[in-house]
């Protein structure tokens, strides 16, 4: 029969599981990253990673990408264990960051396309 699931190892000798569609293209990868943390990636039919879900030293992380491989949204934890969300444009420049200050107060940072801090703009309801 047709191979739809692969069990194997990464180049670093870590475990890996891959699922394929009927055309033999990778759709899902479960693997261990270089730092020993787990990662799940979902791909489109063209073999481009669109979503990554994984573990980091400080907590969980989610990243969405466009079909060109650029990150659009990152969600995770900071080194201090606080939650953080960033949105980026198609060129990889951060536009908005939601998180908290060192004092634990909620914070929003807005950036212009050149990655410089910009005044915040309130969205209409």
From TrEMBL:
Record-given protein name: Uncharacterized protein
Organism: marine sediment metagenome
């Amino acid at each position: 029969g047709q191979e739809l699931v692969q069990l194997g190892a990464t180049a670093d000798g870590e475990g890996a599981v891959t699922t394929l569609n009927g055309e033999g293209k990778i759709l899902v990868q479960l693997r261990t990253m270089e730092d020993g943390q787990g990662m799940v990636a979902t791909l489109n039919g063209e073999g481009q990673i669109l979503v990554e879900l994984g573990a980091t030293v400080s907590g969980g992380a989610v990243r969405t990408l466009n079909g060109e491989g650029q990150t659009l949204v990152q969600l995770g934890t900071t080194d201090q264990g606080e939650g953080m969300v960033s949105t980026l444009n198609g060129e990889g420049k951060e536009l908005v960051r939601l998180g908290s200050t060192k004092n634990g107060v909620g914070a929003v940072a807005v950036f212009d396309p050149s990655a410089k801090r910009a005044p915040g703009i309130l969205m209409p309801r």
